Amino acid sequence: MSVPASRQWHATELPVTASLGEQTFGDLVTWFDPKRPGRQFGAGAAASGLVIFERASATEPWTARSFASARPIKGGLTQFFTADGQALIAALADNGHVLLFGESLSAGADGPRPWTSTDLSGTELEPNGDSTPAFVGGLVSFSYYWNGLNIAGTDANGTIWSVWWSPGQSRWQVANLSSITGAPVMVGGVTPYLTVYNLEGGKKYNVTNLVGTGEDGTVFTTWWAEGGVWQTANLTSIVAGPRLAPGSLSTYVTEWNGTNIAGRDLSTGELVIYWWSPEQGPGNWTYSPLSAVVDGGRSFVGKPTGFSSAAGPINVIGRISDGHVGRYVFEPIGDLGWFWRFEEPSVLAING
Fold first, then answer.
1. DSSP-assigned beta bridge partners for residue 206
2. What's the DSSP call for residue 125?
3. By C-alpha distance, which of 249, 250, 252 is closest to 266?
4. Domain residue extents for the chain
5. DSSP letter, residue 290
6. DSSP string spanning 207-257?
7. Distance separating alpha carbons of residues 55 and 103, to the nearest angstrom
8. Nearest to 268 by CA among 251, 250, 286, 245
9. Under DSSP, is residue 70 helix (H, G, I), strand (E, B) or coil?
10. Could you tell me how many helices (H) and strands (E) the chain has, helices first?
11. Please, what is the end-to-end C-alpha distance for the chain in angstroms?
12. H runs (alpha helix) in the chain
């Protein structure tokens, strides 16, 4: 199947950071800013702090800038936004503290903006008697339409923790979500997804899920519906689906509030999607073994990344065993309807 020119994949090398006197390490985070259309962003950890990659459009060159950190970064970067559009990045420091980096909103819409950093543990948590959770394996983050901000993860015991702030709170606080919900031990961390429903009168209703696996690959979600209490559900039991490899889960929500959990089958390594849509009714989850049923589909190694575009197509991207990038996409094909297909962007890409 040919790829239209307007959808041609490109391979672009980020600028060498030697000009900054150092290299980034660990995984990068990338994002688009909905209030600054066209601009593209990435961030990575470096010895002196945070490196921000940015370009004004897909045809412009990338730039790299370095910003000092309140403490040396160990890793675990995660990116999210405040309700008024400020880009934030949370990270783990060398001593286990939680760091928060914020992009300035006062520098105008055009051009690069400065970033500042705060040691949340040292300035907000520990001075007020809260111990910083001993996070392992990185952080995740999410925010609410009322500007509630959340940084979450698990510790070495598989306990789910949240460092959170909400308007009306005088400071950031810590919550042991496993203790609150009775969640089982989580292996391989958790991954979040949020759904927002529009109600009559312009009101909104938010549901939050933190998804992970137990020691045997059983998929659990620890969830909270606005106005309610945190709870835990066994999705593997509800779906009657396969157990998934710990640390392989990725979540995403479609434009129509369909919820999806992508991961690798613990037994076969095949890519599996647990999914639900509003048309199915409450609790009626199902699953699809994608790499087993899509023509030419290949299994991923490591953790996939899933996302839904504003135009509708669903994407699940990951690394395959030969080092290439693989992509499953659910999209309309001519007048035939919507179908899943598989491609290898790193093979199809052109330089530039």
1. 196
2. I
3. 249
4. 1-181, 183-352
5. H
6. EEEEEEE-TTS-EEEEEEETTS--EEEEHHHHHT---B-TT--EEEE-TT-
7. 15
8. 245
9. coil
10. 5, 26
11. 23
12. 120, 177-181, 235-239, 290-293, 345-348
Q: Give the pLDDT confidence score for residue 311 in this predicted structure.
A: 77
Tokens 């940015």: give the residue.
54
Averaged pLDDT, groups of 10, the chain, 352 residues long? 58 67 85 88 92 89 91 96 95 97 79 91 96 95 95 97 96 96 95 89 88 96 92 95 96 93 96 94 92 93 89 91 93 88 89 68
What are the CA-CA distances from residue 129 to residues 121, 146, 174 (Å)?
10, 26, 10
313 phi/psi in degrees, rounded to 5: -55, 145
CA-wise closest residue to 299 among 323, 261, 326:
326
Handedness of CA 184, 185, 191, 192 (dihedral sign): positive
Tokens of 143: 């925010």
* Phi, psi dihedral angles at 216 (to 5 degrees): -100, 10
